[in-house]
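Title: Prediction job returns without error message
Component: structure pipeline
Severity: low
Priority: P3
Assignee: unassigned

Description:
Job completed but the reporter wants confirmation the result is attached to the right record. Sequence as submitted:
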Amino acid sequence: MKNREKITIIILSSALFLVSGAFLFYVFITHWRAKGVSSVERGKEIASRFGCFSCHGPEGIRGIKNPGNPEGSVPSWDGGTYMMYVENEKEIKEWILNGAPERLKKSETFNNRRKKSLIKMPSYKGVISSKELNDLVSFFKATAWAKKPEDPLAEKGRELAYNHGCFGCHGPEGRGSLPNPESFKGYIPAWDSKDFSELVGNDKELEEWILKGSTERLQKNPASAYFLKRQVIKMPSYENIISKEELEAIKAYINWIRQNPNLPKF
């Protein structure tokens, strides 16, 4: 074999090795990042993929018109829907799998209303996996405010978080993992995630995030400072927006979220 052919083979082999290595690294990074995405965020993707938003509206919060239905439209998942149509978490699963809970299927009133409605809830049994079902239930529960804080301070914090636009980036209840291009993991960490624990080490740092939009610890670290500066969506500063009392309420709500995981219980 001539030297030129040997060199060509070496170059091609090296190129193939580099391409393969880069591909494997990309797969590893993608998998590593995806592991941190919350169940609520995965549930939103599943709801979109299975066509839930076609009837219940974007992100399940604006149902379309439903001719024949006494209420005039497909119910949204927020605004008290949970209390009107669901008695427990088991019934959420029955709605998805069977098109309605067994309790309502035995109701003559419900069946008459269902017959009059042009658009009926479909059955996803045999179509959706158990893991997908759990994630979809998580997203529905967060969107429907299935559980509210009993502590008045935390409940006030929830209202403040809503009014100040926190859920736009942090997702329903603060449990989402919305995309954030050029950030370290590619998404905004959910308040009840392990990622959040890494970013917020204590109560003081939680205050720094809310008031300053970052923490002194992360700004002093060259690696974290690089990604904080690079990421497209940056945490805003609420220092001149909220009072000390409002700060305490928002902190109480975030801590309540962290102490109350939104996981299906069947």
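Comment from assignee: result matches the submitted record. Residues 89 and 265 are 7 Å apart (CA to CA).
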